[in-house]
Amino acid sequence: MELKAHLYRLENIKAIHDLATAGIDHQVISVFLSAEGICITPIEVTNIVNTYDALGKEKVQTKKVQALLAAKKTVRRTKIYHALFNQIQPNKKPRINRGFFIHLEVMD
Predict the structure, then answer these.
(1) Which residues, 6+ apart, have CB-to-CB distance to 106 below 8 Å?
(2) How far is the C-alpha of 97 from the C-alpha of 49, rounded, in Å?
(3) Is the predicted pLDDT of residue 18 greater than 90, yes or no?
(4) How far apart are CA 38 and CA 8, in angstroms?
(5) pTM score, whole prediction
């Protein structure tokens, strides 16, 4: 993707967050953005507002993202998490965290 498109996304997400923080109703934000050419529902506005803070807490490690992409290409869907874990830590057992996510620790 182009850098310009990424910057637009970031600015729009920040604008949605700022409008919601100012107390503007999500329906109004949705209508405003639709008038600006960005078709978005009030539910999508709510989802962006609710995940804004969570997305800023941690950066996903690129190594893990690449391992997941590689696993997706080579392994069936039912085995993808084990393949991901084995690519990053081949000699350790996965620990299940929060129900179904595999906790991965990578030492750089």
Answers:
(1) 61, 63, 64, 88, 89
(2) 25
(3) yes
(4) 11
(5) 0.59
